[in-house]
Amino acid sequence: MALMNTQDTAHIRNFSIVAHIDHGKSTISDRILELTHTVDERDMAAQLLDSMDIERERGITIKSNAVRVMYRADDGETYQFNLIDTPGHVDFTYEVSRSLAACEGAVLVVDATQGVEAQTVSNANLAMNANLDIVPAINKIDLPSAEPERVRAEIEDELAIPAEDAVCVSGKTGEGIHDLLEAIVFLVSPPSGDAAAPLKALILDSYFDEYRGVVATVRVFDGAIKKGDMLTMMQAGESFLVDGVGVKRPAEVLVDELSVGEVGFIVTGLKDPGAVHVGDTLTYRDRPCAEALPGYREAKPMVYTGLFPIDNKDYENLRDALEKLRVNDPSLVWSPETSVALGFGFRVGFLGLLHMEVVKERLEREFDLDLIATSPSVDYHVYKTDGTMVDVRSPQDLPDVTRIDHIEEPYLAAKVIVPPDYTGAVMQLAIEHRATMTNMIHLSDKSVEMRFDIPLAELILDFFDQLKSRTKGYASLDYEFADYRPSELVKLDILLSGDEVDALSFIVHKDKAYPLARGLCDKLKEIIPRQQFEVPIQGAIGNKIIARSTVKAVRKDVLAKCYGGDISRKRKLLEKQKEGKKRMKAIGSVEVPQEAFMAILKVDE
Amino acid sequence: MTVRALYVHVPFCHAKCAYCDFDSCGLTGERLARVAGAYLAQLESRIDAFGACGALEDVETVYIGGGTPSVLGESLATLVAHIRRWCAPSELTCEANPESFGEALAQRLAAAGATRISLGVQSLDDDELGRIGRLHSARGALAALERARRHGFTVSCDLMCGLPGQTGASWRATLARTVEARPDHVSVYPLTLEEGTPLARRAERDPRLVPDEDFQASCMETAASVLAGAGYARYEVASYALPGRRCRHNCMYWTGAGYLGIGRSAAGMLDGATYLRLRRLFPGGEGDAPTRSVDPRDRVRLVQLDDAAARFDIELLHEREALAEDLMLGMRMTDGVDRALIARAAACMGDGAVDGALRDVCAAGLAAWTDAPDGAAAWREHAPGARLVPTERGWLLGNELYARFWDLATEVS
Questions:
Q1: CA distance B399 to B390
Q2: Of A235, A439, A527, B121, most Cβ neighbours within 10 A?
Q3: pLDDT computed for residue B154 by the predictor
């Protein structure tokens, strides 16, 4: 196929599409694939680039994906576009930065009805920091409430990006997409690079395929990659023979080579999912380049939870599954953890709670595991009386009170942008979450930027959801790590039928311990099903019981007719109940459902 | 094992009740006559097909259920007479609703050879009846009961607890009036919300309609004590009878007897050998049948899927599964299971597995041995005539009890 042939770099454009969540990035990607005839309209499931089930269900883009489209421009020339999709949620800013490094340009999508929002700003900043050429696009102009001119002014005022040429588009109707493609040709620089130099290529994504081993998405900066090349990963030091080279259109198509400036995938044949590190530089084993590409910033986990298989026999399977997920999610870190209640598992670090949910769901769906996730924790610095400091990421690891001098917890610098009407509501929310306001700037008549210092532990609980609900969805949130600060923290323990359940313990600020203990006891009472005997639930700090509730004993279970036609049905019902019980954990004699261990996230204060 | 019981399904009602998820459709007048006429012709040819090959010879009990069989009117009597051409059951029950069980029908049914009427009374409170979409009043129900008795039928009466708006007082009143009317047999069921029913949909919007488990439990206890006081002995988790008036047909279901089901959605249960003999009458097998060859020792459960008896769902149970099912069903009855059945189960599953289940249910207070109430002893140590029977707790928490025995079907010993 002529279109597949290696192209001179002047006709290549590598770009990402970045946007605030729900501003229509994925729809625009779809329209581009359609307009360039990369896929037939009839084959088009909405939002083609999001291939994982979970992504489609939640309407968010989690993993990045690189697709090649060929565009015959108005100048009569055919251009190779490599469209690199990026995640849109605040948990995944690391993956955004990784994708951007493989691009020369970025299409910045702004919703014509919403205007510039927090992640528009942070993504635009990321793109500008990566020295990308920015193509502003104002989306959703088909909506009656669209205000393209106001948004154009916002882009110029708030982002300092020239916007007179901003393209007005509708991802829904396809209007303006042609203009956008032309703008990409003219505004995004072609890649530079030396085709004759030794290979220098960046691994920007990878996944494990049972039959082909690790498959890596790469961007070639110098040289070229062909099947049969012997390559070395410069950081890992490992070498492999290239088993195949291809591009996604979006179905995989094999090509002869990936040449300078191009983006595509290579089949490494490596059977160890941990062998390939995203961010590593590829070069020829026998003719290496002088130095590796500037490395990616390693993603730092913010939240830690315990992940335990309900069936302890699945421990090794869970470890294997984590290894396999890590190959395309390098931000995943874990270490073994043991719980009296739950047995053997892992303490896993995540970028945020959404990341955690996504990983847990993938582990359960793709690897058929039944898992319990325990209450999220942050990384506390515990200073002991002997002068040493320990990192505590799990309530169970907290040393005895008598050996603690003081504890420090991580703080974030958070930035909230809201319309002025909601500043009071945000202030109230901040007080409830132990946050202190450090600054407030009126950005315009319509938006105020509020800056807070807030403990990470508060933010991960329900701050974001609360913020959205109390501001009717208007607020946006962005944050970064600030520092560690001393804090008066206590360990709240939960007892079921009088026995402490370590996996339900939680580290909390002492002022919040009482209401939280009460809320948690009530919530657990709702979650834990009635059993054959009464189950008292108690919240305690040390030996002191501070809250209690009781799950009453069940008096009758489903009692239905059981005549000839009902017998099979009855048996199936009993089997289904048994399956349901398998998804519960027997702690002592109490059957506890999975969600009980995450009850802390559902306590409404 | 031969065929000892026959179930015939009539999938028509005058109107569907709000809680019902049985296979039935609401029809009246001309339409009912036309649809039911065609359906009955198919039933009769099916009965003839079984009769002609001798499959009905040993039938001791017949049950015509629904739906509401009494909506067929005279045709129901014709159906009863038709069945009697092939067998001479000592018990032949027809289900009926009070509003469609008139004088003429009572007379015709008695003449055709029906012996027992099971009346869908449900409640003797008019407001409660109205709320669940019943077409009869309390008075109509008592009149129908009286009519059935006058024509010499054994009379059973179905009641429900946990109905919308029902109170402890109204439940006691329903029980008192029932006992006063002196049916031979009473069945008591707690209302369950079945998925897809109008009541379940209403309950999604109005949680007050969701039956309260504790209330239902106390209703069940009230029923047990009121009925026992009036001479009705409980013989199954939900069934009470005056002496000698147990429903023999239903007992067949719980004691592993073979039965045939005729009509759409009717279920039959045969041993493998009988099934192999009658197999040509069960074409269009779906489920286990196409993939597993049938052994004469298997148990075969057959559900007719269509009106024409051209499609069947066929489920095969191996000996071990059949024994586990017998234990599970036996524990629904006051008689429980005898040591002989337990011995057969142990021979198939091993002493360890069986003793484990017996110990668990006794320790949980769900069942007890008649000879040694502590239940800790292995089955072999119990007296030859001993039985394992459910306790009071086992009545209300039956699913725990049945599930433990059904586990034996798959448990690795």
A1: 12
A2: B121
A3: 98
